[in-house]
């Protein structure tokens, strides 16, 4: 089942390691097939370079395992809550990238210190801390993301959202860059933040602006 989605998760899981967005088996990736109403998600605790397509777990929105012999990611609730509440989201990439995690450990939102944040929104909110794998964390992440395509997870990491896994991964990677820039500029002083008006222009150009 979902052979294409399984292959993509294996591929992008290795990229998480190669691009220094996580270590070991940290983080997770999922793809939602809305036609089948099924989620393909990386398994819990398995190194990405040891993960094979047959290790990817297929679940439904009620967390029933439809296919797979391994346990799905411990953050399954967080993936499901977005797929249930955001009809524009078909893939999620959760990272433990160094600089985004550092910002989350400060409990800060990530502001528009660089225009590339527009892939996610005019800023990226930080969810209140909750135990990993808990429903509380899922609810906090959904609230922090709002209409945006990402959220920091307090003292934990980053969650990036996309129409497909390519866009979700790209958002995660670019937000790590923006987080590093924010870290560096904060060490120099107070960074110059791009205005909401100017960020709206960026997001319209990116196609990420949410019209209300």
From TrEMBL:
For this protein, the record's SUPFAM superfamilies field holds: AraD/HMP-PK domain-like (SSF53639)
Q: Which GO terms describe its molecular function?
A: L-fuculose-phosphate aldolase activity
The protein's enzyme class: lyase
| Catalytic activity, EC | 4.1.2.17
Q: Does the keyword NAD apply?
A: no
Q: Which SMART domains match?
A: Aldolase_II (SM01007)
The entry's keywords:
Lyase, Metal-binding
Under the heading Gene3D superfamilies, the entry gives: Class II aldolase/adducin N-terminal domain
Cite the InterPro entries for this sequence. Answer: Aldolase_class_II_sugar_metab (IPR050197), Aldolase_II/adducin_N (IPR001303), Aldolase_II/adducin_N_sf (IPR036409)
**Class II aldolase/adducin N-terminal domain location, by residue?**
7-183
Q: Which domain of life is it from?
A: Bacteria
What this protein is called in its record is L-fuculose-phosphate aldolase
Which species? Acetoanaerobium pronyense
């Amino acid at each position: 089942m979902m052979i294409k989605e399984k292959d993509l998760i294996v591929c992008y899981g290795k990229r998480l390691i190669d691009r220094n967005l996580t270590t070991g088996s940290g983080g997770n990736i999922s793809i939602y097939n809305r036609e089948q109403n099924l989620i393909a998600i990386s398994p819990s605790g398995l190194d990405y370079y040891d993960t094979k397509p047959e290790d990817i777990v297929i679940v439904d929105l009620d967390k029933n395992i439809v296919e797979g012999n391994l346990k799905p990611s411990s953050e399954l609730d967080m993936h499901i809550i977005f797929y249930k509440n955001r009809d524009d989201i078909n893939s999620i990439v959760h990272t433990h990238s160094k600089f985004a995690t550092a910002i989350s450990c400060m409990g800060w939102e990530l502001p528009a210190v660089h225009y590339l944040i527009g892939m996610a929104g005019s800023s990226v909110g930080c969810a209140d801390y909750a135990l990993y794998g808990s429903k509380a964390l899922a609810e906090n992440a959904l609230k922090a993301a709002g209409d945006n395509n990402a959220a920091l997870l307090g003292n934990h990491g980053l969650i990036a959202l996309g129409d497909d896994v390519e866009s979700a991964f790209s958002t995660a990677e670019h937000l790590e860059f923006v987080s590093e820039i924010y870290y560096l500029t904060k060490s120099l002083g107070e960074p110059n933040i791009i205005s909401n008006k100017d960020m709206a222009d960026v997001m319209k150009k990116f196609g990420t602006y949410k019209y209300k």
